[in-house]
Amino acid sequence: MTFRWGALRAAFAIVLAASGAFGVVALPSHGLSSAFASTSGDQELSGAQSLTVGDWTRPEFDRDTYSATSMAELLAARAAAAAAAAAEAAAAAAEAAIAAMESAKLESAVSQDTPTRDSESLSDPYDSELSAFLVGRSTSWTRPVDAPISSPYGPRDIICNPAGCSNAFHDGVDFGAACGTPVAAVSAGRVVFAGPAGGYGNRVIVDHGSGIESIYGHIGGDSYAVAVGDLIETGTVVGEVGVTGVTTGCHLDLKIRVNGEYLSPLHYLLARGVTV
Fold first, then answer.
1. Predicted structure pTM score
2. Which among 194, 196, 209, 230 counts the fewest CB atoms within 10 Å?
3. What pLDDT digit, counting tens, does each position of 102-136 carry?
4. CA 7 from centroid of its chain's CA atoms
């Protein structure tokens, strides 16, 4: 009986030893992945089977100068920018065309204008009295009011009121003076019109000879300081700034007409040394 019990214990010990040896040998191939097993021997084994990643939040990025939130918005923004650039180029081209046209008109007007008008050979055949009056006075020009320009010569938006609607092209230049401001004649001449003119409001027109006229629009009611037929000096007050006709506020609308064609008053006065 003793012999049998000893033999069983020896056999049990051998089985335990064999099982332990087999587990140690099998551990590298069964306990580790093939990918990890192929890494460098310096790799630490402690994290191979249990890797913990902390919480991660996507950082917020500045949007720089972009406001689009989708490709469609980005394309729309680019299209709008291109349209704005095209409109600006078209406006610049239109302004250049107007400037070229005004330059040509001014050259034609200056060639007939005041420096030689004092010559007897160029006296106005329709108004000899005016021609005589202008001798020594025709080269004197001045600004009509001391006020900033509020609307230039050229294309503009149409405005309407009970008196009518404005033109899409402004033939004059507006000076943003307060109502009641005295309006001075830009040069010597004869008053050929003083009265209401529909959408242009109350008007005064002065003939400066050689087909040159200055027109003062939106004059205040009952503020005429001259009458038709008067011969006036440069700077003579012809009336006061008002809001008559098609207008949105007090201002003077000055127009310059040469042989029936309107020129830019700004360019015309500048060509005669007037600061505007």
1. 0.57
2. 196
3. 666 655 554 444 333 333 323 344 688 999 999 99
4. 109
